[in-house]
Amino acid sequence: MDQHENSALTEEQLWAEKRERQERSYDAVRRGERTQESMFILPPEVVRTFKVRHAEEFSWTELDT
User: Fold this and answer.
1) What Rg, from alpha-carbon coordinates, does the chain have?
2) Dihedrals phi, psi of 32, to nearest 5 degrees
3) Which of 3, 38, 48, 62 falls 20 to 30 Å from 31 in CA-CA distance?
4) Distances (CA, A) of 12 to 5, 8, 16, 18, 22
């Protein structure tokens, strides 16, 4: 049976990878290859359909249903 090395990344490596991906995304926006909106997790057309309700507008019992 083969011995497997621990291939887990450190927190510092994970953050470095994240920053590299972010920089590639920012560069793509700067070059005009992507729009800033295309980088959002939720597309703007979906967000525009959201209706925000403040806590004063409903009772806590509504949360249980």
Assistant:
1) 21
2) 85, 10
3) 48
4) 19, 12, 6, 10, 15
